[in-house]
Amino acid sequence: MTLLRVRDLSKAFGGVHALRNVSLDLAAGEIHALIGENGAGKSTLVRILTGALAPDSGTIEIDGREVNGAGPARMRALGVAPIYQQPALFPDLTVAENLAVGLEPARLWRLVSWRERRRRAREMLARVGADIGVDAPARTLRMAEQQLVEIARALGAEARVVLMDEPTASLTDRETARLFELVRDLRARRIGIIYISHRLQEIAALADRVSVLRDGELVATRRRSETSGDELVRLMVGRELRAIFPERTVASGDVVLETEKLTCRASGIADVTFQVRAGEILGFAGLVGAGRTELAHVLFGLTPRDSGTVRLRGGAVRVGSPADAVRLGFAYVPEDRRRHGVVGEMTVAANTTLASLRAISRAGFLDFDAERAIATTYVKRFAIRARSIDAPVETLSGGNQQKVALARWLATRPQVLILDEPTQGVDVAAKAEIHDLIGELATQGLAILLISSELPEILGMSDRVAVMRSGRIAGIVDRVAATEESILALALGHASSDGGAASRS
Amino acid sequence: MTHERVLAACLGLEIVLFTIIGSNFLTLANAGEIVRASAEVGLLAIALTPVILTGGIDLSVGSLLALCAVVFGIASREAGWPIALAAVAAIATGVAAGSLNAALVSRLGVPPLIVTLGTFSLFRGLAEAATAGVRNYSNFPAGFLFLGQGTIGFFPAQAPVLVMVAVGFWLLVHRTTVGRTLMAIGFSTDGARYAGVPVGRRVGAVYVLSGLCAGVASLLYVARLGQAKADAGTGFELMAITAVVLGGTSIFGGRGSVGGTLLGLATLAVLQNGLRLADLPAELAGVVTAALLLAALGANRLFEGRNRG
Amino acid sequence: MMTHRRELSVAAAYAALLAALWFIAPSFFQPANLRDVLVAAAPLLVAGVGMTLVILTRQIDISIGSQFAICAVVAGLLAKDGLAMPIAAAGAVAAGVALGALNGALVAAIGLPSIVVTLATMVGLREALRWTTGGEWVQDLPAGFQWIGLGQSAGRAGIVVAAAIVWAVVAWALRHVAAGRAVYATGSDAEAARLAGMRPRLVVFGVFVLMGALTGLAAVLSAIQFIDVQTNAGAGFELRVIAAVVVGGTSIAGGRGSLAGSLVGVLLLATAGPALVFLGAEAHWDRALQGAIVLAAVAIDSVRGARL
Question: How many domains does chain A have?
Fold first, then answer.
């Protein structure tokens, strides 16, 4: 019996197609896995299925009836329950209360029976085999436990379609095993599960069918028994490198940045060792949660390291804060542009100079002419399209905001430039411009770390590619030897049967 | 149609109104009186501007003024210190107290509202304890009293102090790199940190400065009234905050100006003075102030809403 | 028990204070003195109940001192007009409701920040009151005003009992009525609460109205202890109430706290003043001590890593 069917679902964000004519179906009592690279469209699909986002075109059917235009409340009422990577519980309310929300009528003048709530909560938790105190505030629970509470809540709401988005990203092996049991149990109850994951071993263990998303399109749906890890990887990747990346001669200047056994338990990174030379672009590939951004945070002084060494041009350095990092010559263009990359309410000029105020000041006083000069230079050089340099950055498009972020860091004349998803949410034209800029910067002698989830970008731009997995470096691959398959295989931890071209260097 | 322009228009309206209905309003002497009466609150409000710009608040400035005044009184009248030294003691007290606020806010991360709520009681409490609640220091030398009661040509003696502090803060907030970082912190504390701004140090500094100004204001206060008591500056913190918010500085931080604060201050001071000269009840000032404040907030919200679309 | 660790800490601190008094100045525990402390704490507790809810929803109300004064004057004037005490008291509470609704409308309906709204209403209301009364106290009140005509001992007992009842009723409602839970949800995550159908704006409006009503009641409980009504009553009241609530463990960020904690907070701060005198210190250290207690409480919270 088909529980859920989507036909020709399409969604575009400002010219960028997140989903293109995606069709798939989910049967009752089926675990249907959905895989694809970062940015392939999985999250968009989930958001549409939960009613949080409306598709541009296409239909959604539940039990054979169309449910277009339904919002989150209606989809929930129809039995669609999402379990996100980041659980959304009320942090200060207890587990019992969280479980009650959404299950009790919303009238404000209703008496609440705690005995009833706690009893029901204990029942719900027992169904998912969770050993969690019902009186604990949700914020004291570990990620795994919060997830179990969410699953319990979904079950309690008589969910029939459960959407799980990267559920094991923050779980230990044991918690993962327990989650699998739970998922199989859901299946036994004739609940349909859409299971999004990168981890091929999980797919192999759980899924009945697997659908592969690539660049917003559903390229294939296979029965798990009829496919292999290799084929899935091929399907995830299979494209020609359509984009044209700047020609580069691989420079080999001196080693600028070197790390040795860098470890930070709180962020989950361990024994990270690598080197970057002047003029080199070291790409960092890996799946979401592999630890790349966490590594960048440690390098930039946002999180303290537990052990290991960082050497800048041979000398050991201690980076205690971002202010330290900037002083030493590090620059970091962060992943979250809106919250960390730029200060939206401030002007283009002010944002450009925020990290290099000393350069536009005399004895502490701002030199507005110098500021305008620097801002204008970068606007021209980076072709930043803005009303004026006095326009608030939040009025610029994503691509132009990113260019401002880049300009800010280049104005500090750094030695090491860390780029974290530099072209995420940027339109195609601006992407090419940013790629050219990055290439130019490398030619000028900067040591660049390029964190990216777009494999073509990594392959097109990097001289070498460091692949991270579970907080460690799984391998560093030379440009010549790197292919999408080999990198993805390292990132997934999948030993491909046709051998890899991976090497530790 | 910026906030400041509307406020300036309000101020203009007040001036016109009181010239008509008040007696001897539009005179140089009265202008001097207005400055004299609002100098202390003015200093507090000016120093409060960078605090609120960083998204914080300081409820303790009025109480700190009292504490510094009492320290001054004890130092000069009881311990017999020379006036200059006693003044230094008063200002040092302000700096020390401001540093307490700074440490709790920036090192321990306690919300400024609560920290300064506590120090609001603590500072005045210390002043009360030191004076046993009743002692009153007076009989200050005429040279010192000149600061609060004398005139230099046309201007009251407080004017140069007020002007210097205003200019100093204006330069700090609008012309220095430090000021730029303060605004960034107010708009986005995380964003500022990611840009390499030493957030903790900057935030701490504005509270220390606020304390310093409370110390200076305490000297003006004692000089003007001729006495130092533990009830000095009661209610000043609220007037100061009102002046800052009326002047257009957002309570959430980032947006604002020292010029706006001065306009807000002038609007409130002229209102109080004008009502008195027009023989109208002084309480009307409070009611009008409240209405102005709400109107200013409401207008900002409307404007913001339209901007965000 | 873990979830109430904060409340237990404050209770422990209070117990320590009482223990110190027991050993050093046992005369503190004379019935007359204890009675005085409780009677003085009663209005603080009643207002503290309202303030706890306000802060739980991530708002603040610094205008209750002015509301207090207005409600006290309303009670006095109504009594002077010959109305029976219960009606006069109800009138005071109704005045509080109206004032609270004003704040609530500005914050919840228009969306203005509560700190500045209540700053404005604090100043505006106080000055409006002074204007209409000319600063004169309400005097020549009928004999039935003081102690509601019950006489001193019954009156005092009644005040404490009334405060206790209010505390108990609201504490029960906070736990067992959906609206009470919505208060916590709103403070914890207003957007999620909205999506769950809990109407956070209505909740915020409601807590300001309740705050006003309870301030009115607190004003009555305070006013009936005297034979006339001061028009500058309630000066500094708001900060004492907020301090008590914060010391009691309610987080200024909303969503976390309890009325049990506020009760202990109120008792602690109400006891600290008189305790000083009994412990041999001068009474004028009272305010400094109150400030120190607040700072100590939040500093310890912060060091322990609690979310403030």
Answer: 3
